[in-house]
Amino acid sequence: MAPVMVLWLALCLTGTWAVEKSNFKTCDQSAFCKRQRALIPGESPYRALLETMELTNTRLTLQLINDKNKVRLLLELYRLQGNMTRVKINELKPLKPRFEVPDVLVKEPTTEPMSLLSQDENGVVLSLGVESQRVILSARPFRLDIMEGREVLMSLNSRGLLAFEHLRIRKDTALGSFCLSFKLLVTPFIPLLPKQTAKEDGKDEEGMWEETFKTFVDSKPNGPTAISLDFSLPGVEHVYGIPEHADTARLKTTENGDPYRLHNMDVYKYELYSPMALYGSVPLIVAHNTERTTGIFWLNAAETWVDISSNTAGKTVFGKMLDYVQGSNEKPQTDVRWISESGIIDAFILLGPTPKDLFAQYASLTGTQSFPPIFSLGYHQCRWNYNDQEDVQAVDAGFDQHDIPYDYIWLDIEHTDGKRYFSWDPHKFSSPKEMLQGLKDKKRKLVAIVDPHVKIESSFKLHDEIQSRDLYVKNKDGGNYEGWCWPGSTGYPDFANPEMRELWAQMFAYDKYEGSMDNLHIWNDMNEPSVFNGPEITMIKDAKHGEWEHRDVHNLYGFYVQMATAEGLIQRSGGVERPFVLARSFFAGSQRYGAVWTGDNIAEWEHLKISLPMCLSLSLTGILNCSLSHAHMDTPRREPWLHGLDNTNLIRDIVRQRYTFLPFWYQQFYHSHKTGILLIWGVSVMNFAGRLLDSLTWMYFTGKDLLVHPVTEEGVTSVTAYLPGKDEVWYDIHTFKKHNGGQNLYIPVTISSIPVFQRGGSIIPKKLRVRRSSTCMEHDPYTLYVALGNQNTAEGEIYIDDGYTFNYEKKEFIHRKISMANNIISSINLAHDAHFTTQSWIERVVIIGATKPSKVTLKAAGGQESKLDFEFDASVSLLTIRKPGVNAGEDWTITLK
Predict the structure, then answer these.
(1) Which pLDDT tens digit goes with each residue over 307-365?
(2) How far apart are CA 565 and CA 524, in angstroms?
(3) How far apart are CA 346 and CA 349, in angstroms?
(4) Which GO terms of type biological process are on file (predicted)?
(5) What is this structure's pTM?
(6) Does domain 374-596 have CATH number 1.10.287.110?
(7) Could you tell me if 400 and 772 are in contact, meaning their C-beta atoms sit under 8 angstroms apart?
(8) What are the residue numbers of the active site?
(9) CATH number assigned to the domain with residue range 679-896, chosen from the 4 options 2.60.40.1180, 3.40.50.620, 3.40.50.12780, 2.102.10.10
């Protein structure tokens, strides 16, 4: 698996301990979830006031009214560039502003014109400008339907589960009673518009103004503020996304259990196949069938629950505007309902229609995966904790002694001086620069943990500065919020404040982070935030970030921590070097700042297995740099040479194989960074020839050219892999044996084999001279693996830059297309305005599925021709052309005769 996965970072714990589920809420224990889930479908109180509609060139607005309490909402509808639609719903006149998520969108989305097609007393029809796409807005009850031709692509509030708990004054307080009496006294004299004033709601329910979980009391000064909206997806059986959950990639129905929960928490040794919330949250659902891929991005950072239900879409009638919709034929339908505790409804509807289109649409909103330095794609050695500098040096030497390459060694919290981050234990790590320099001399690097909680101690400079600048999160009474974490009594920096993020970034400067060097990179753990003595092991919701409660921003906390850390590493290099930052907690947009990991799992086969759909789900939401190998401090040492000679040899082989694929991995990351295209894909999402198999949960693609069937069960001697595409051919990368697509393939396996196939018609660059680290391989030559398709053609690319700076943004790179057709292999420039030089050259070309030529000739950039040596293995139709000797950045052709 190693050569075709990114980073598998898992906290490997020995034993079968399980999470203590009673520490975490169910929906019934979450007042707003229980309240909203009790709503009855089909009884929507909301209608659209069509007389309030205003349509400009960029947006439609109109008011919605709740006929039960007469509260008015403001609906905003936007058509966005790139085949997207945005729907926002807020109170028309809230008592105070409601939280709207900042900083996640890379920019304010570009709008495009909408036009009015028709209108009557029942609703309006708007053109979305893309082919025959339209929005039908029905007035009573309020409902939105997005259509293309005669097909309904998506419906909003079709089940009538829109809910918007408006801000109000509590009636059972002195102030509330006074305000109510005053309002009743003066109302006759205030010229209010008809039905503009909210009718008092019914009896307050338990948990609306205060909520208790175990011993923790969450005061709710703003009262109930939950929002909810349902989306119906006709023709859709399979939906994916909304990480992070330890579950299959395909989301399950939640009708007989809890909804999926999005609430970032420290869930130690999490349960498998569960909708429980974990460390990160990305509120994006991807809906996929053989005809179309669509998505829903729910931009809300509060605690959120997502209900999934499946049924059939029967006959639907929207009045005269929808008379032409066929309703007699039942078809599959999936319904998705979002429930958030606070904020506003801000939903982006991504209309695809292809998976590639959808991922580009989402990337245009939240950004693409940051382009990692190439050395971060190598092997990482990590545990909690390496004891001291001598231990680090011994482990480093062990890799050399056993001829196993690696790029990073990691240090957990014990390397610090008393859990004061940005520091070193003065006894165990007394000379950090000497340690770092020793690694740098071997072109290796170190990752140190820097957690986002600060030891409360007057002699600690970081604490003193945060406190003096009043940048800690506050408790509900205005004092600094204090919790308990690794240092003991702990303060939590208010990372939602840009001033705090700037202070944090400055801490990574070499003159402030004493002992640090340019080969030191950073790990942000515990950034949910983790609070050992807090409710659900996190921060109380009534804590304050400036004017906002923590309940509004909770899922953004880890996002902001990683943002500030990445910016700090960029600043320390003067804006030159790309950072490597790994974080445990994340949100939509976290991909812009680095990698994530899948948290505190257990070293068991089932946890290994579940890491695959977890990373695939993250990939669907743009977070492509997923996970490494880590070990708890109480586990035995697990360096690769401590498992016996046979296992050491296996580990060496697989790690070295990974290093040969680094050029391919790096190239895939470049494409993902530039376009938003996925790095790893589930086979069902690739959807070859319309085939959609849920049984393919455990298979995945790397790019579009490598297909992997991981072995994730103990003692397995065979697997059955589906090779997609009836017109495709696939080659085993180990044996070079050819297989036709569109079939299930029985594959014997051993502990040393991982089924991986290269797609016919592809060319993959590799470097076969494996050295002690990726940086040591920078100038080494390439081998091109050309896998011929049914037409005896193939295409691929080579991408080369310096591997670690932002100079590629200045067009300092090489990007070439390698293709084979009509027995000619050629390399042509794809970036004529770019400039870069490389010492790497083409060492060999391996053609899989070839016939034996009589002669092979090379024509180099200067026009000179030469004859090349070759070998042909008829048993597997493998042609190896040796030492073309041309520079990897130049034009050349090889002709087979």
Answers:
(1) 999 986 443 334 334 444 444 457 899 999 999 999 999 999 999 999 999 999 999 99
(2) 8
(3) 10
(4) carbohydrate metabolic process; N-glycan processing
(5) 0.94
(6) no
(7) yes
(8) 525, 600
(9) 2.60.40.1180
